[in-house]
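pasting for the record
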Amino acid sequence: MSRTRSADDSSVLVQRTAGLTAVLGAFVMVSTVIFTITDFMGIQNVFAGAAVAFLAAFQAYRTNERRSPSIVIAAVLAVLGIWIVVAPLVLDADRALVIGVNGVAGVLIVILSLAGAYGSRQLSTTASASA
């Protein structure tokens, strides 16, 4: 009973963190329009945000379909979150708003991705223990 409950708790953790990560990815994507981010920084935000939103939604879908969530997807999301944080510095964005929006969203994406990776690890541990 406790293994099943632990697996359900981990599954919910992965689903919710992936869902919140997808929302943050969509926010990064539309922040280009909302905050009028121009030039290559705006294009980067659209593509990076779309990639985060797609991968996180795919992770939530996999978990919802009772397939094991992927730690690799969570790791890729964490790397994308780090890129979102450092992109304004690398691409010389001089607006404080762009640096702030990307910094906060990127850090939250990294935190949620690491929490999702932890939940994925718990699910794989629970699955191997029950087999």
